[in-house]
Amino acid sequence: MGQAMIDLQHLAKQFGHQTVLKDINLTVNPGEIVGLIGPSGAGKSTVIKVALGMEVASGGSAKVFDTTMPNRELLGRIGYMAQTDALYDALSGRENLKFYGLMKGLAKREINREVDYVAKVVDLTADLNKRVAGYSGGMMRRLSLAIALMGKPDLLILDEPTVGIDPALRRQIWAELGRIRDEGRSILITTHVMDEAELCDRVALLLAGKVMALDTPAALKQHYQVATIEDVFLKAEGVD
Amino acid sequence: MRTIGIMNRVLKELFRDKRTLALMFVAPILIMLLMSVIFNTNSATNVTVGTVSVSHKLNRQMADIKHVTVKKYNTQGAAKKALDKETIDAIVKKNGSNYSLTYANTDSTKTATVKLAFKNALTATSINQLKSALKQSTTATVKLRAQLQALQKQQAVAKAKASGQAVAAQQAATTTATKSTSQKSPKITNHYVYGDQDTGYFAKMMPILMSFFVFFFVFLISGMALLKERTTGTLDRLLATPVRRSSIVFGYMLSYGILAVIQTILIVVVTVWLLGTEVVGNMASVIVINLILALVALAFGILLSTFANSEFQMMQFIPLVIVPQIFFSGIIPLDSMAAWVKDISYIIPIKYAGDAVTDIIMRGRSIFDLGFDIGILLIFLVVLTFLNIVGLKRYRKV
C-alpha cells in the first residue's frame, strides 16, 4: 500500500554512553494503526522523539513521509499528543485549540471549523470556553487529544492517549481513530492497555531497545501460542 | 504570523495572572515610594555640631540656625570621642584661620544639613571680617603707595646703587598685602568618617533603580514563564509543530517588550509626579533605553531558565545574577573601587542602561549622544537572542 508513512530502519540512539535504542525496524503504512507496546523504559518515547525530529538518530535511518527526519516543515502534517497534557491552563479550551492550530499553520477560517469538529469528537463542546485550570484530569486529556486531531494530519503520533479517560469515551475515541484509518491516514500509538492493543492493525513489541515482534495481534498470539496480547507481552518479557 | 500568535498567547496568560501583574507594576512603585520616604523626609533632621577652638561669634551664628545645636569642646580628642559615641554628628575645628570639618556621615542628610549650616554661619560672620579685611588691605595699599613714592624719590637720587634693595622691599610689601587678604577667606577641609560626599542620594539612585526594577522583574517572570513551558511539556508540543525556533523567542520578546514599556511608563510617571523627581532630558528616551534593557533581561532570563529545573532553582539565580547587578550598576560609586573590581562592571548590562538613563534624567543628554551605552546593550541583546535560538535546539534538532 504505497510508501510507508513512518519508516525506521536499524534505528539506534545513544544518550552519552547509555544506549536506549539498539535496532529498531518499524514501518507504519497509510491507513494503518500501529500499536507500540513494551515495558516502561523500553524506549517507546525515544522512538516517538526520533520520529518527530526532536532527537537525531545515532545510527540507521528515520524517515517520515519518505523524508529523513528531522524536518521542520513536515511537522505540520503530524498530529502529536504527548504523555503530559501540555496545555496552557490560563487559557480556555478554545484558546488552546486555536493557538495550536495557528502554530500548525492552519488558516483562520479553517481553525474555527476544526475547533468545533475536534471538540465534538472528544465531547468537550460544552466546556470549550472554560479555563483549562478548571478542567478535570480526563477533560485535559481529551483536550490534548483534540489538539493532536486539529487540521486532519496525515499521521497521528499518540503517546498514551487514553489514560484517565472513562470507558464510554474511550470507545468513542477508538471509533474516531478507526474513521481516521479508513480515510487512509495513519496512527502510531503507544499504550499500556492491552485490550487496546487488540484494536490495532499491527502491534510492535518493544523490549530493551529492540523491536522483538511486529505483526497483527492475531499472528502474534498464534506465534506465542497464547490467548491475549497481554500474555504475548508477558511471554516476550520472559515473566511467564 | 506565528510570532504574533505566540505574543498574543503570552500576553493573554500574563494579563490573566493578576498577582504577577501586580508584582510587576505595584511592587516597584511601592519600593520607590518607600525609598523616597526613607531617604528624603529626614531632611529636617536635628543635628548636633561639636566645635573646637571656634570663635564665639561663629558658634552663636550656627546655634541660631534651626535644627542645629552647638556643643563646645576644648580639644579635638574630646570631640572625636563624642563623635564616636554619636552624641554629635560633626566636628568643626579651627586650625589657625582654616576650618576642618569632620562628619560622621552615617546619614547623608545630616551631613548636608551641617555643611549648609556651617556655610551660612561662616558667611554671616565673615561679612564683618571682610569689612575689616577691606580696611586692612586699603591701608596696606596706601602704605605700599607711600613706599613706592619714597622709592621713586630714592631712585631719582641714587639710581644704580640702591635699586636691588628696593625691588626686594617692594616684593616683600606686596606679599604681605596679598597674605592679609587671603586670610579672610578661610580654607574648609571636609573629612568623612564613613563614605564620601557621594554617599546615598535618592536622586542619584532613582534612574538606576528604575532600570534595575525593569531588569529584575522581566528577568524573573520571563525566566519562570519559559521554565513553565518546559516543565509542563508545552514547549515540546510547540516544537512538534512547524513553528520556527526564532518565532518562539521573538514572540516572547514582543510580549515582554510591551509589558516593559507599560512598566517603565508607570515607574517614570510615579517618580516624576508622585516623588517630584526632576527629569531634565526626554522621557521617551528613558523608555527606549529601558525597553532595550528589558529585552536584554528577557533574553538573559530565557537563557538561564534552561539551566534551571524548577522554579526554586530559578530563584537561586537571584543572588548569583541579580545582586551583583546592583553592586556594579553605579548605585555604589564605581570610582572608589579597585581597578580590577571596576572592570567587572563592564560585563553588567544594568551599568550601561543606568549610565544612559542617568545621563538623560540628570544631565539632559540626548539619546543620540548615548550611542556607546546603547550599542553595548544591543550587542548583549543580539548575542543572548542568538544563544537562545540556538539553545532551543536542545529540544528540537531542527
What's the story with the biggest beta sheet of chain A? 6 strands, mixed
Number of domains of chain A: 1
CATH topology label of chain A? Rossmann fold
E-strand count of chain A? 10
- Gyration radius from CA atoms of chain A, angstroms: 18 Å
Query: CATH homologous superfamily of chain A, by name?
Result: P-loop containing nucleotide triphosphate hydrolases
Poorly predicted parts of chain B: 176-183
Q: Give me the side-by-side strand order of the main sheet of chain B.
A: 2-1-3-4-5
User: Overall mean pLDDT score of chain B?
Assistant: 81
* Structural class based on helices, strands and sheet pairing of chain B: alpha/beta
Sequence of secondary-structure elements of chain A: EEEHEEEHHHEHEHEEHH
* Class inferred from helices and paired strands of chain A: alpha/beta
Distance between the termini of chain A: 36 Å
How helix-rich are the residues of chain B, as a percent range? over 70%
Helix content of chain A: 25-40%
CATH class of chain A: Alpha Beta
Number of helices of chain B: 15
Give the overall silhouette of chain A. globular
- From the N-terminal CA to the C-terminal CA of chain B, the straight-line distance is 19 Å
Protein name (chain A): ABC transporter ATP-binding protein
InterPro entries (chain A): AAA+_ATPase, ABC_transporter-like_ATP-bd, ABC_transporter-like_CS, P-loop_NTPase
GO molecular function (chain A): ATP binding
Domain ABC transporter (chain A): 6-233
